[in-house]
Amino acid sequence: MTTLYYTEDHEWIAVDGDVATVGITAYAAGQLGDVVFVEVPDDGKSVSKGKEAAVVESVKAASDVYAPVSGTVIEGNQALVDNPALVNEAPEGDGWFFRMTLSDIGELSGLMDKTAYEALIAAAG
Amino acid sequence: MSDLPADAPLLTTPLDALHRELGARMVPFAGYAMPVQYPTGILAEHGWCRNHAALFDVSHMGQAWITGADVAGALETLVPASYRELKAGRTRYTVFTNDQGGILDDLMITHVGPDRWFVVVNAACKEADFARLQQGIGDRVTLDVLADRALLALQGPTAAAVMAHFAPASAAMVFMQAGPLDVAGIPCFVTRSGYTGEDGFEISVPADQADHLARLFLDHPEVKPCGLGARDSLRLEAGLPLYGSDIDTTTSPVEAALTFAIGKRRRNDGGFPGAGRILAELEQGTSRLRVGIALDGRAPARAHTEIQDTEGRRIGEVTSGGFAPTLNAPIAMGYVETAFARPGTPLRLIVRGKALEARVVSLPFVEQRYHRG
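The joint structure predicted for all components is written out below.
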């Protein structure tokens, strides 16, 4: 069973056991505009909660994608590298950035659920 | 994810309500709320301008009349272009220089005729520019800053056909020609120029009629609104410098590869701020030059990216960089040591700690298509 969490940095993390998939939210993709370049982490890379894990660049600017929790990358989304527009087309689906194993399940407790995240972006206008 | 934009109280242009109605994302720019993009997005807007006609709101820029018996002579004490020879009805690009030969702003000056001139300056610099004009030549000319006019830019290969529909006389204008013109019956001041590399017009219109005129343009099937995001990617492809990024007080016009903005007569006579340095650079060259850079991969290199030679030695810095929608590839502009400025020279750009292969290319990246008649 998959549980969906969100971060204040506008990322989503879908957790199934000790494996998770990470991407940016539709709100974030909309704010970025047309994405023209994506860099995803290699398999086996260790990532730390809150630290840079991937890169997303729109026509205008480059942004970091942070690891929402600590763990080890098991797969970067090559389809996204080949077609960065997937971030705009399906940010919370085929436009995922990377999959990872979690080193500390407890870190999930600090993240938001969908209701809390929707309240956050509603407050942001 | 980092760096989402924040909101702040800002000035608005006469088209503010229209932008919001069109669903624009408004961002702070030079103290104004400006549309960075409309719902179609920067790539679509960029493509529309390259293939049809794009309407930009550039009302944040500064506009002024300058009148007097010898405006040209007065202006020439502040800028290196030749204006004494400029015929009425013609526009010429120039830069304000400081005593060290650095660039204070770049601007367009039109000789309206006979004793009337029109200037358009960058939004972020306009207060300083107008103060400079007032203090520098205010005893010889009358400066009339136009706070009650909007500025629209209609740009693209079909801009001329659209303009001819609303202002038939515009068809006779060529690149860098300007004059008063009724557009859809509204008294405007029109220049055949722009900042996209395409044919097009900049239209100074009374503020209270700007919304009406913009809607008339947008009702034309060839015209779509374009934001500042596309304006930036278009000007980068066209090789045009952005003040504050590619040129500033630390760069001279010669280093910036803007020698065309220095008049022939002025190269002998000088008489503008920083002439000592600038004329010496024209003679002897400079230690660095602004160049175009094409990257081999897909990753853009943004402003302040370090430029190295193939041995790994730092030889310069990127000043503007991004993705070129027309070329479907990353491009950049920056300054390199003069020995590395020749087109074809291999470079390395250091992005997130990695060296990206790149090379110097001649500007513009995308051919300019001005209507020279």
